[in-house]
Amino acid sequence: MEKLLDIVDDLHLDNHLLIEEMPDLDLYMDQIIQIFESKLEKSKRNEEDKVLTKTMINNYAKGKLFFPIQNKKYSKNHLILISLIYQLKGALSINDIKATLDKLNEKIIEEELDVENIYQSYIKLSNRNVERFYQDIEKSADEVKAEVSKQEDDDSSYLEQLLLIASVVNMSNFYRRLAEKLVDSLDDEDES
Known about the structure:
- There is one protein chain.
- It is elongated and about 65 Å long.
- The chain is mainly α.
- Helix 6 (115-149) runs antiparallel to helix 7 (156-191).
- It has helices at residues 2-9, 29-40, 54-62, 76-88, 94-109, 115-149, 156-191.
- The longest helix has 36 residues, at 156-191.
């Protein structure tokens, strides 16, 4: 169990780009990439992985995941949106992310909403999710251990890992599927 908690700690789940870490001036793409790489490098699975690349940002722009930039520079609101995209892309398709962020982009352009407040709320909720995740993982590990103890196999350590992996993936799929259904329901709410 301790090893599992070490693995969870090593995920750096509370690693977010915070509003205070975002400059109030417009930045070029290379500067954006540098900020994301330096802040979120602990979130990478492998050292050679990239948090953010020029190609990714260009694809987000082409896909209209964020409102157009001005003079090849990105505003603080762009940084917020790119940070949200970074988080969402772990579970959602580019089309689902676009559908999720379309209305937010409109409101930013029309200056109807303070996106910084929305992002601060997201960070608070995310931090609460981290706490909940630790509790859920401990409970799942205990349940797996109980199931493995019923097995007649000498390799209980492997069986625990196998069942925990399968269980975690199963829960991940449940959450992803729910997120997809919520994205689908965005259209329903707009129509009503």
